[in-house]
UniProtKB/TrEMBL annotation:
GO terms for biological process: phosphorelay signal transduction system. Pfam families: Hpt. CDD domains: HPT (cd00088). The keyword Acetylation does not apply. Keywords: Coiled coil, Phosphoprotein, Two-component regulatory system. This is HPt domain-containing protein. The modification Phosphohistidine is found at H59. Residues 90-117 form a coiled coil. It comes from Thiomicrospira aerophila AL3. InterPro entries: HPT_dom_sf, Sig_transdc_His_kin_Hpt_dom. Residues 20-114 form the HPt domain.
Length: 118
């Protein structure tokens, strides 16, 4: 598994940019807009110990990030998704979420720069 501190490669984004040209920008902007909202919902679901919602939200984030080739972020979402079960350790889920939020903040800066440069 990739370390949470590993930066996501933008190889897929570069390939998507070559394929989609300017149509990629709104996709990235949508990801940047919705990810913090979904993370906030995920945080509330973990606090409420709502395993179904935790799984669903983590799965949503996992898929949307994987579609952009952000595999390190996607893998962190996968860990949260799979950890949300009947025997869930909510303290560990909170720790994993804190790491995911930090990753998302760093990713946001890098994606904003990607939009500017490409």
């Amino acid at each position: 598994m990739t370390s949470p501190n590993t930066l996501d490669s933008f190889e897929t984004l570069v390939s998507l940019k070559e394929l989609l040209n300017d149509d990629l920008k709104p996709i990235i902007v949508t990801f940047l807009k919705h990810t913090p909202i979904t993370l906030n919902k995920l945080q509330r679901a973990i606090k409420a110990e709502n395993t179904t919602q935790v799984k669903d939200l983590a799965h949503l984030l996992k898929g949307s990030s994987a579609n952009l080739g952000l595999m390190a972020f996607s893998e962190q979402c996968y860990v949260i998704e799979k950890s949300a079960n009947e025997d869930a350790d909510y303290e560990q889920l909170q720790t994993n979420l804190a790491s995911l939020i930090t990753h998302a903040e760093n990713l946001q800066q890098r994606l904003e720069q990607f939009i500017i440069e490409y």
